[in-house]
Amino acid sequence: MKNRSSTSMQLECGQYCWSMTIGFRAYLMNISSNVMLDARLDWDGAHVFIRTPLSVPVNEQFATCTPTTYSLSWPLPRLPMLIPWPGPHATREMPMSRLPETMDTQSSPVRIMESDIRMASEEPMWMPSVLGLSAGAVMRSCVRRTLVQAKRLMCVFLLLTDLRWWTLELVTKSSLSDCETYDQMKLIGARYFYKGYIAGGGHLNSSDYTPRDYEGHGTHTLSTAGGNFVSGANIFGYGDGTAKGGSPMARVAAYKVCWPIINDGDFFDADILAGFDMAINDGVDVLSVSLAGDGSIEYFMDASIIRSFHAVSKGIVVVFLGGNAGPFPATVLNVAPWKITVGASTIDRKFPSYLIIGNKAYESYVVYLGGHSHGEEDTQTDYDRVTQSHYDFLGSFMGRARKLQTTRSWSFLGLENDEGEIPASSLWNKSRLGEDVIIANLDTGVWPESKSFSDEGIRGLIPSKWKGICQNQFDQSFQCNRLKLIGARYFYKGYIAGGGHLNSSDYTPRDYEGHGTHTLSTAGGNFVSGANIFGYGNGTAKGGSPMARVAAYKVCWPIINDGDCFDADILAGFDMAINDGVDVLSVSLAGDGSIEYFMDASIIGSFHAVSKGIVVVYSGGNAGPFPATVLNVAPWKITVGASTIDRKFPSYLIIGNKTYEGQSLSQKSLPEGKLFPIIFAGYANAADATAKQAEMCEARSLDARKVKGKILVCLWGGSGSKVYKSWQAALAGAKGMVLANNEAAGNRIIADAHFLPATHINHKDGLALLSQLNKTSRSPVARITTPITLLDTKPAPVMAFFSSLGPNPVMPEILKPDITAPGVSITAAYIPKIGPTTYVYDTRRVSFNSMSGTSMSCPHVAGVVGLLKRLYPDWSPSAIKSAIMTTGHIDPNRAMDPGLVYDLETTDYLDLLCAFGFNQTQIKSLWDRTYACPKRNIRFIDFNYPSITVPNLKRPVIVTRKVKNVGPPGTYKASVCRPDGISVKIEPDTLEFKSVGEVKGFSIKIQPAKNGGSKDYVFGKLTWSDCRQHKVTSPIVVKQI
């Protein structure tokens, strides 16, 4: 038994604020020091007792305590205070005493605030009769009827403004008139529950301890169920009318269990459980719960299952959402038979706008307000145990964090589902989100203040192997975070030697271009809710390894002589990253476009890194769709191409009876329902510009007198980027812009942050639009709709049009790129220094930006590598590479359990270089250990790569490979999808593995068809599969000569 002590306190009129439930736990807070104590309030009819098990010392002016059970009591003989008493109109005075003489009441005022902790077992039986309310109800004595009869100088005032916590406040006589007219009978209760959130790694400031809704979700759902009548309710004037809930005259109460997102979750089982308990005890009749739950049969491991059953057993009706994972079967949630589970349907209302042109035909366009799904699903395990101190404690289980909304890349790759739920089988779950892996990039630096690099949710000390620093001696404003962004350096001597100039303020790892911040956050950024660009793609941003530590190595500077990243700086960056102890390097830079392997810093630096066990991931270049343009083709690198995801941002051009779908991220939009004249830019050329220049909206090519107030149709081509053309249109006074692809651009469209309302359409639609404009006898009018966010678009993934293609221009026998990953319209962290277009005249500022390129694909793979590194720290870089490559388009969950891998050692790479013709002296620049080229003949096609490429097939050839078992024992059977016109035979076609680490070899006999065949590259695949889920697929690429 712990010791107890007690003291007395004085409460002066109007000086202190009570927010409490008598008989419940509460918080005792010293305002001047912000020290809070978990407390319990009791009343014996003459005294209020505050009992608190102290875990921290109280403010020294109050008392000096060691952790013990600390009891405070004060007799109540003096200050009048109204408490409802049994009987229809009776009242009773509750007097209060004075503090001890040693208490400094000015510097140590005391506040008592309501807690979210459940009722203790010694619940006093006096409360229902004294308060005239059910157990657990808040004192409500400031009711007009009581005050009119009592006519006291003081009253208890119930403050309910905007869902604030219930506050019982002592007020002076001057406030009495307000109190007399106050009659809050609608919102009769509000509580908040946070201990599960704190245990799960969350952090709350003192101002956060409130039931106030800071996200809007709870206010929306509660008002839908029981909101009062409110006339004139609308959104921007649409849907105007009288808002009301389903039971407008019902009393309502709010139980706050959701908080800012941590670890991809914002509501925790412990808090849901406590919320149910308190709602049951408070006496609610109906519970509306727009949260996910019971997605599995683990009924006794789910808070919503346990307490919803308790609620129903008490006669409370519990209504749950059914989830937003449709239209796929077997995705319904909250399926416990005692719950009412609700699906969503439409109502008989829409928001059409009509275009009338020429023949008076109407074209209806229904405004879609975006793909936001609030109120869903559980995401990951909460590794902290729920407390067993509850008075009716039945058992304990591992709580799960839950979340409300997600973004797209990682759900598209299968790490989470569309509702943000992380399946138990996900690599995210198995790898603990990449915890403690160190991911670094070589890029333009980093913006450390970005929320993507916050410490929130990061646990434990920095890995002991880390030797890096935060290089900020000339920029004290640059501070690495304590746990997430653990290092940053910059390298500039190569840039200076190349003719660059830096001011004293430039010597910093800070990112002034946005590229490095975007790529690093994509690989290892933390969870950030509400990430979007101008409201589009809104959701929770996160990197591939959200719990990884990250570091930035700045090697790129403002462009000089058509270059901004110099070899000397890249090499220095590699050396320091290796020395500092990184695990993964993401390098979204160009390199090794020639065979001069020993004259390329990226070749030398990446080889050193891989030989030290660091996985190096490179972008494959943006010179597509032309063949043999792929870059960074060294066999030890993971080279990444870009592909699409199943999300787009459509914006429609509506003209006459035609609708053209384009894409856009325009911040501005045209007025709803208003039509504007539309003109082809080629007819609006300035006096000193040609029609050809004008049609492509080049600089100073447009006549403002012809353009002003109109929608301008520009062609993509000539000089200037897509967004630059929108800038020129805006300068000329256009109201909107349609960017139509020329023939060379074809169907390649991307959403961009244009400077005015705009949409980008493909070549086919562009031709149709111009034809329609030419056929219209009168001046045509049209409108451009505001962009929206659409998910689950098909087909996806598709190779991005800009992504550089193979074959490998240096070693055709090594297939490159190795893998594709999301690289189109990727939303990630950005910098506030420049606008989203990077143009100096772009004054807009965003915290997140949408960017496209293999630069964006590269960190996606680096993030997945981080997860695999966490799961398999002893795997070689080549084993990790093989696990990723044998999935085709990156599939993180399959890479987690590849079954077989094509493994390589450092000497295998050196042997390949020997076969390529490099001598011992050259190879020594890569490898500082003793090595001699093998005397045996080495063929490129036998290099143990996860792909099989024969670029010059004239006669039958036998290719050899070997695979290592990294899964359970099993038997694998080969199957072949042969390339057109090619015969393929595998020998042996069955491989049996009895242990982990066992290696088996096989051969592939490839021969041309007898009747000849295509002289172009043809494609097939070899798949090794067991009777389980393992399918190890290698592409077969052949070109006959």
TrEMBL record:
Segments forming domain PA: 693-769
GO BP term, example: proteolysis
Glycoprotein as UniProt keyword: yes
Biological source species: Striga hermonthica
Residue span, Subtilisin-like protease fibronectin type-III domain: 942-1038
Protein name stated in the entry: Subtilisin-like protease SBT5.3
Residues the record marks as active site: 443 (charge relay system), 515 (charge relay system), 855 (charge relay system)
GO MF annotation, one: serine-type endopeptidase activity
Alphabetized InterPro entries for the sequence: PA_dom_sf (IPR046450), PA_domain (IPR003137), Peptidase_S8/S53_dom (IPR000209), Peptidase_S8/S53_dom_sf (IPR036852), Peptidase_S8_Ser-AS (IPR023828), Peptidase_S8_subtilisin-rel (IPR015500), Peptidases_S8_3 (IPR034197), SBT (IPR045051)
Alphabetical list of SUPFAM superfamilies matching this protein: PA domain (SSF52025), Subtilisin-like (SSF52743)
Pfam family, one: fn3_6
Record family assignment: Belongs to the peptidase S8 family.
Transmembrane portions of the chain: none
Protein keywords: Glycoprotein, Hydrolase, Protease, Serine protease, Signal
Domain Peptidase S8/S53: 208-354, 434-888
